[in-house]
Specification:
Length: about 300
């Protein structure tokens, strides 16, 4: 079945607006014969008369009036699609579906999103917060466009933009922190180490800092979030490792939890942005990574 074209509908709407073939043709930047032939082809295709023609006037049939109104909607929709595509060609514009993990989202996004909105007002971020495994699966399945997470984490065939390091600090209940300003990672009491639940990459990063498998106590007392973990520490249930980003955002406010830096090469997780290697928006995501990286430098004063 052959369908009418947008051009034919455009000619029909122009004729209804001007009620004059010559004026309608001028508005469409075509000859009068071209416009007239286009409308005749439309009528033939639909098998109905839409316009009553005479030497003195142009009249639209009731069906013609209804078709014109429907055609206006189609032309508006087509123009909207064109605008959407053109807008998407601008750097960091249009809808971007961003996945982010729970140990980053509440600590980084409130600080960076207002600046990102000012820099790229046409960017519309749709956010999804979930565990690394889930946002990675959504990325590879095309349900997300880009993911903000902590590295190292294997997520498939992706391109990675490293943003910054997020150091770990040892956290103790009040009165239990060593006198020294720095502590060695291997001096931490592994049997008192509190961890996040399985599925949080921060759990794996903390274990990597301390080495070995999860302690027995850590397996029975697991935090569902960093806020829960802090409350467990504050209540004297054990010690843990907390990321600097969360501490800078006021995670310990209202608690008596004490922290100490770790000695040696400061253990840290890498915060990164990842996207599919074959993504057509790869250049935009590199720009996004550069923006987040520069914003963090402005906040921390890092070189």
């Amino acid at each position: 079945m052959n369908l009418p074209t947008l051009r034919q509908f455009k000619y029909l709407v122009a004729l209804r607006d001007h009620l004059h073939f010559s004026h309608a043709a001028e508005a469409c930047f075509v000859t009068q014969s071209t416009l007239s032939a286009g409308i005749q082809e439309l009528e033939a295709l639909l098998g109905s008369t839409l316009v009553e023609r005479s030497k003195r006037s142009v009249l639209f049939t009731p069906l013609g009036e209804e078709v014109v109104e429907r055609a206006r909607g189609l032309l508006d929709d087509a123009a909207g699609i064109a605008e959407l595509v053109n807008a998407s060609k601008a750097p960091l514009s249009g809808v971007v579906r961003l996945g982010v993990i729970p140990t980053i989202a509440p600590f980084l996004l409130p600080r960076v999103l207002p600046a990102l909105r000012r820099a790229y007002p046409e960017l519309k971020l749709h956010l999804k917060e979930d565990l690394s495994q889930i946002v990675c699966a959504d990325l590879m399945a095309g349900r997300l466009d880009v993911v903000l997470l902590a590295l190292p984490y294997h997520c498939g065939d992706v391109e990675t933009g490293i943003l910054f390091e997020d150091p770990f600090l040892a956290a103790y209940p009040a009165g239990e922190a060593p006198a020294a300003k720095k502590v060695a990672p291997d001096s931490l009491d592994r049997e008192r180490l509190l961890l996040l639940e399985e599925g949080h990459c921060l759990r794996d990063h903390a274990l990597a800092v301390c080495g070995g498998a999860a302690p027995r106590l850590g397996n029975s007392l697991l935090g569902t979030s960093l806020h829960t973990l802090v409350q467990m520490i504050d209540n004297g249930l054990g010690i843990s490792l907390l990321p600097q980003m969360a501490l800078d955002s006021g995670l310990l406010k209202g608690t008596e939890v004490e922290t100490r830096q770790l000695s040696g090469k400061a253990p840290a997780r890498l915060i990164g942005l990842i996207w599919r290697k074959n993504s057509p928006s790869g250049e935009d995501f590199r720009k996004l990574a550069a923006f987040l990286r520069e914003h963090q430098r402005g906040v921390t004063g890092a070189a």
